[in-house]
Amino acid sequence: MPRGNSKKGTPARGQGVKRRRMADPKEKEQPIASVVNPRSSGESVIDFSSDPGPSQTSTGTESNIFNENIQFSQSLPCLEESLFDQIGCYVPMKLKDKIWKHEFIDLNLLIKSPRELANFPDHEGDLVVKGGHMRIESLPCRAIPNIHTWTSAFMIYMSILLEKQSSLAQELLKYMRDIRFAANKSHGWGTYDEQFRLRKAQRPQSSWAVINQDLWSFYITTAMRDQGQSNESKVGFSSQSEPLHSFRQSSGQQNVQQPRTCNAYNTKGKRCNFNPCRFKHGCSACGGQHPAYFSDEKTISPTTRLTFLGVEIDTSDMTLRLPSDKLDELLQKISFVLKSKKVTLREMQSLLGSLNFACRVVVPGRAFCRRLIDSTIGLNKPHYRIRITSNIKADLLMWKSFLKNFNGLTLMPDRLWTSNEALEFYTDSAGGSTLGFGIYFKGRWAHGLWPRTWHKRGLLSNITFLELFPVMVAIILWGSELRNKKVLFHIDNEGAVHIINKKSSKSSDVMILVRRLVLETLHHNILIKADHVPVVPFPEPSTKCISDTNSNSEPSMDSITEESARLFSDSLAGNTWKSYSRARSVLDSFQLLYTLDKVWPVPVEQLVQFIAYLSLKHFSPATVRLYISGISFSHKERNLEDTTKNFVVSKMLEGLHRNHPQRDNRAPVTLPLLRQITDALPSICSSTYESLLFKSSFILAFFAMLRVSEFTTKNKSDSSTEALQLSDVVVSDCQLKINIKKSKTDQRGYSTFIVINKYRDNANICPVLTLKKYLAARPAVSGCYHLFMHFDGSPLTRYQLSAMLRKSVNFCNIPNPNLLKSHSFRIGAATEASKRGINDETIKKLGRWSSGAFERYIRIPW
Length: 862
Known about the structure:
The protein is of the alpha+beta class. It folds into 7 domains: about 1-75, no CATH class; about 95-120 and about 140-235, no CATH class; about 240-300, no CATH class; about 310-315 and about 320-410, Alpha-Beta Plaits (2-Layer Sandwich), CATH 3.30.70; about 420-530, Nucleotidyltransferase, domain 5; about 570-660, DNA polymerase, domain 1 (Orthogonal Bundle), CATH 1.10.150; about 670-855, hpI Integrase, Chain A, CATH 1.10.443.10. It has a 4-stranded antiparallel sheet with strand order 6-7-8-11, with no helix packed on it. Strands 1-2-3 form a 3-stranded antiparallel sheet, with no helix packed on it. Strands 12-16-17 form a 3-stranded parallel sheet. The relative contact order is 0.04.
C-alpha cells in the first residue's frame, strides 16, 4: 500500500497520485485554506502541503519547503483576568447599566470568563416559532451552585454598584452577611436572594439592609430541609443546615468549610435511599464515621408547649407560666416563711432568688419583693435571723395568690399605650364626709359615698387613698373590657401617680388597695401606668363679678403668702435656680473648710478669697461668674447690700477671664456634613422609622436654628410642653411653619413663628420634604403630642439625639468627632446664613438671639 502522512492529509511520497478528499455531509462549507486545527479552538490553519491542486503532482524525492502549518486568529485578542485588575472591569457596559438602574440580573453572568463576557449578547435564548411567529425564548437562569460562588458574584455586583452609589456600601455588606447567614440555616437562601432582588428592582428606594420578613419567614425560617424534598435541588446544600447544626458550626473557633453530611444518615429512625449519595455519610457534629443521633433528652418533637430557660411557653393559649415543679417548690418556700417567726438570711435570700425568677412571668410581683429585700439590709452573715413582720407576711400572701391564681401572662398585649381619654375612662374623688367618688366608662356611670367608718379612721384626709379607690373599682367592674391593653392614666395627684407606677406605698391602707388593684390587672392581663397632669385653675372672674356674686369672698393670708412665693419662683428658669443653689452650696463648703463665719452680706474679703479658691480649683471663668451672680441674687433676695459689686471683686473676675480665655471649640455642621451624617443613619439605626426620626430632627435643628431644648425632652417621662408639639408645626407643599412657644430668650412665652422654605439645592436634606415623610410615618399614639417621638410613643430625649449624632459622626470617619455636639446644628446654620450674605438682624431674629451673642456662633475663617 502507498504510504503517506495521514495526519497531515498529504499523498504518499513518490506516487504522484491525486486523491480527492470525500466531503462529509455534516461538515459545513468552508473557504479554501480554512481548515480548523482541533488543537486550537477559534484559530484557523493554512496547510500548504495538503492538496497540491489539479495541475500539480508531488514526487517522493521532491522536498516541500512549506511543510509547517501557519496559524492565524480570526477573532480580536481578549485580555485575561488578573489578580491585579479592578473587580468587575471586564463586565460589559450594558450589564453595568442594568446594575446601576437596579434592574434584576442573573448573577451567573458576572462570574463568566472575560472572553464570554466580551461576546455577551443583548438577548440570550433560543429562537423558536410558535403560532406562525418567531421569537426568542429566554433561557432559564442557572442556579448558583453554592454560597461561595454567590459571594464572588455579589462582590462583583457590589463593586459595580458602588461606582456610582458609594453610600450603599454598608447596606450591601449587611445584605451579603444576611445571605451568608441564611445559607447556614436553610437551603432556601438562593430563592430568597432572587425574590429580594426582584422586589428591589420594583422598589429601588428600599434598603438593602432591611430583611424582608415575609420572604425570610417563607424561604428561610420555614423552608423544608428534608433531603428528599424538591426544594433541595435548587441549590447544592443538604438539609444539614438546620438551626441546631448551624449553631454547632458557628460556635467553633474556626469557620472551616466541611463537606455536607447526609441528613437521613444522621437522623435516628431514617435510612438514606440514595446510592450513591452525593452527601457524606458521616457525623454532622465531629465528622467521624458514625451517625450523630441526637439525644432524646435534648430533642423535642413539634409541640405547642415547651419549657425554655425554666419558663413554660404555651403557644396554644399564648401564655407563659412557671413549670409545676418550680411552682410547687416556690409555694413550699413561701409557706415555710409564713409559718416562721424568724428565718435566717440564707433562707430569705433563697426565697428572694426564687421570687426574682418568678418575676419573669409575674412581672408586677417585683413591687412585692421590696420589703423582703429591705429586711436583708445590714445583715452580712448567713446565720443571722430576720423577723417576719406583718408587712412581709402580707407581701408573701400576695405572692401566694399570684402563683395559685395567675401563673400565666398573655404574650400578646397591645403594642402601644392607650390613654384613659381615648378609652373614655374617667375617675374622680372628693374628700368629705358627705361626698364620694364617681366613675365614667364609655357611657356608663358608677358612683358612691364614702363609708362613715372611713371618716372615723381618718381615711378621708388621705387624698391619695381616695384617688386610687375609684381606679380599683373601675378595674373590678369593667376590667374584662380592658383585657390585654396598656392603659395610661392621667391623674392630677402626684402621690397616686407614684404609687401606680411603683406598685408600692409606705401606707398600709394604700397597700390594701394596691394589692387588690394588682390582682385585678393580672387577672385581665392589663398593664397600667400613670402620668401627672398639673391642675389648671379656672380663669378668675372679673372684679365686678366678684362683688356681684360674693363680696365677702377674699383670699386667705396663707394663699397670699403662697402666691407671692410662687410668683417669685417663676421669675427665674428652673435651671437658673439650680445654678444659684449650687453657688450657695459651694460657698457654704468653702466657709466650712476654712472655718469662716457664715454671715450675710458676705464680707468682701471672703468673696475675694472664694474667687481665688475657685481659680486654684480650676473652675472655668464662666462658672465662677455664675456663682458670683448666684451670691449676688441671694443678697438682693434678702434685701441686703450686694458686696459682689465691689471694685476688687469685679477686677478679680476680669483677671480670671484674661488668664483663662475660653474659646468655643464646637465645630459647625455644614450642609455637606449634614448630608453625610443623615445618609449614614440607615446603617446605624435599628429601623427605618428610627432613621427617619433622627434625620428629620437633624435637618430641622439645622434649618430652624433650634436649641436642643426646643425640640427634645430631658428624659422619657418628661411631660412638659416646652419641646415642639405636633400642633406647633404646619407643613405645606413649599414651606414649613413652626411655632416656638417658649425659648431661652422668651421665658414669658410670647411665641416665635419661623417660616422655612423648600430647600431646592438638595432634596435629600430638604426640611419640608423630610418632615412630610416623617409625619406620614409617625404613628398616632394617644397621649403623646411631642413632634419627635419613637414608634412606642416615648419622646425623643436630648441624650438620644447626642448619642445618635456621635454614632453618625464616627461612622463617617469625620476628623475631630468630639467637636461636633448637638449645638453644632445651630452654629452651622448661623455660619451658613452669614456666608450667604444675610444681615445680622435677620440672623438674630431667625436664631432668637436677644444680644450680640450670635457673633460667637459664626465660624467663618478670615
